[in-house]
Amino acid sequence: MIKKILIVDDSPVARKMLKSCLPKDEGYEFHEAGDGREGFEKYKDIAPAVTFMDLTMPVMSGYEAIEAIINHDKNAVIIVVTADVQMKAINRVLELGAYMVLKKPLKREDIQSALSKVNDTFQKV
Question: What is the per-residue DSSP string for 12-47?
Fold first, then answer.
């Protein structure tokens, strides 16, 4: 069951838009970070069920943050949210341990479908 969600993106507008795509009636607890390092620190503090991660950020990139989080918690569920949909980038984040990749601009249906998939995975474990 998903309760805590961490959104890591250097754009406050992108974080707000992603949050607006999430269902309001599910009782989710939202946490945000503005760069990869802050995202990694918050991940360690709150242990979210799902982390939405941008790739291009200052201080620590999404790639570096994914690697750090997976090294800390191999069961982390990280959904990459990026405009960079080149196969090279997608393959790299999946190799690092990301759960899936969603393309910006986000659509509400894509986010809800991703969360359903995560919930289904959790229920099978």
Answer: HHHHHHHHHHS-GGG--EEEEESSHHHHHHHHHHH-
For residues 10 and 33, what is the distance between their CA atoms, to the nearest angstrom?
Answer: 7
pLDDT at 125: 47
Which strand ranges, in their side-by-side order, compose the sheet holding 78-82? Answer: 29-33, 4-8, 50-53, 78-82, 100-103
State pTM to two decimals. 0.93
Residue 80: name the closest of 122, 44, 36 by CA. Answer: 36
pLDDT digits (tens, 9 = 90+) for 67-120: 999 999 999 999 999 887 788 989 999 999 999 999 988 888 999 899 989 988
Q: What domains are there in the chain, each with its CATH number?
A: 4-119 (3.40.50.2300)
Within the chain, strands assigned E span 4-8, 29-33, 50-53, 78-82, 100-103
One-letter identity of residue 92: R
